[in-house]
Every structure is written in structure tokens, then in C-alpha cells.
Amino acid sequence: MITKEMIIRINELYHKSKKEGLTEEEIHEQLVLRKAYVKEIRSRVKQKLDSIEFIDE
């Protein structure tokens, strides 16, 4: 599950990367957080699509 703190950290790392660059550790952290975020979004979309029922007229 993506927490508010994770989103805040993703945004912090993004802004830092644009201003001054990231260390190798921060780059790795950013990749891990982004993968978790994308995985969560995909899961939510899949869950929503799976719950759709088609009704013939």
C-alpha cells in the first residue's frame, strides 16, 4: 500500500534530482518507491476493471 509518506518522499527525491542531483543510494530508493507506486496503481486499476460487469441489452 502506498502511504502519504511514500508519496512525499517520491516528490522530495524528484525535486532534489532536478536541483542538485541524487546519490547512488537515493537513486536506488527512488527506483524502489516508483516501482511500488506503479505496482499499486496497476493493482487498483486491475481490481476496478475486474469488478466491471457487462450487461447485454
Quick overview of this protein structure:
The protein has 57 residues and is an all-alpha fold. Helices cover 75% and strands 0% of the residues.
Keywords for this entry:
57 residues, mainly alpha, Helix Hairpins, 2 helices, cytoplasm, DUF896
Explain the overall architecture.
- This is UPF0291 protein ACETAC_10225.
- It comes from Aceticella autotrophica.
- The protein is mainly alpha-helical.
- The chain has one domain: Orthogonal Bundle (Helix Hairpins), CATH 1.10.287.
- 75% of the residues lie in helices and 0% in strands.
- The chain has 2 helices and no strands.
- It has helices at 4-19, 24-50.
- The longest helix has 27 residues, at 24-50.
- It starts with a helix and ends in a 7-residue tail after the last helix.
Q: What is the secondary structure topology, with strand pairs?
A:
Elements: H1 4-19, H2 24-50
Name of the CATH first level: Mainly Alpha
Please work out how many helical segments DSSP would assign.
Answer: 2
Mean residue pLDDT: 95
**Count of structural domains:** 1
What percentage of residues falls in helices of 4 or more residues? over 70%
Helix and strand composition category: mainly alpha
Q: What is the CATH topology descriptor?
A: Helix Hairpins
DSSP E strands, number: 0
Query: Biggest sheet, in brief?
Result: none
Order of helices and strands: HH
Low-confidence stretches: none
Question: What is the radius of gyration computed over CA atoms, rounded to a whole number of angstroms?
Answer: 17 Å
